[in-house]
Amino acid sequence: MRSSATRIVFGALALRPGGSGVQTYIRELLNELPHCLPEADLAAAVQRDAVSELPHSVRAIERPVTSGAARALLGALPVGACDVVHGLDVDLPLFTKAFTVATVHDLSVIDMPSASSRFRALGEQRLVRHTLRRADLLIAVSRFTADRIKAVSGREATVVGLAPAAWAAVPTDSHVDAVRAKYDLPDRFVMQVGTVEPRKNVQLVADAAENLGIPCLLAGAGSTGPNAPANSRGLGYVDVEDLPALYSAATVTAYASRYEGYGLPPVEAMASGGAVVASAVGALPDVVGDGAVLVESENIDDWVRAMRPIVFDADVRSALVGAAADASLEITWRRTAEATADAYRAAGVL
Description:
The chain is α/β, with parallel strands linked by helices.
């Protein structure tokens, strides 16, 4: 242990007020790490409007509010004297004498470049490959992502899994009733939460629900737009505090994604009392364990076959919800923070 406090600066420019996914990782990890590193001096480079997202024990290094390539440039700026720089979403300062750590959430920009514009994909690929070469320590959010890092760069990564957001908990019956009324929810429905984009494969979910004779509801960016399936009903953006009740109210929460470096939404649905059916791709089989039904193809008949018992047999649904609750108990952000601190120690920087 160093005689003085180890100074750790986190690259947290991806943190946005109320955001999900990577934002959930940054927010929850920074909330828990001070408990695991009580002697360390912690700071984070954040955009100005996200300063309030940091706990009091993490000092803010304020940056202007921006996005895209401009944000990547901000991530390359120096962060001052420190012992460790940890980029929580790949970004690392261009010049630093500190020990560098990078969290890699997935390699979708390399594995599925068509999901972004050609210009954006090329820029993000360069950023990711640079970080894979340069970081002293790589942290992967799943064994799948670690294996992809090994395949692409030849380097080993320490696996540190994620956990459901703090808001993901089984709602009360009264909360479910209130959300049913707020969104005028049908008695039975299939739901998918997330951005409508080719990688999320929402049309397959809508078609399977139609085959089963129940509505498909979508929530998230694009769910009310022209690219949403015609045989679905979009809720648009929904309040985060309503998500647990939506997951609990849905007969099936489906995730037909074609690629996942981890897959937080299915885990959050499981923790909220949802019955989850998900595609067996990327990290999802390891992440959901026995808490979800996995489908190994994009064949609509396979999805209908997986969902039918849950839709029409209350006992089957109840058993799956119970298994999901058991699986979720083992996944916590304190565990994620402890594993992150252990990775620092194993690298000899604490």
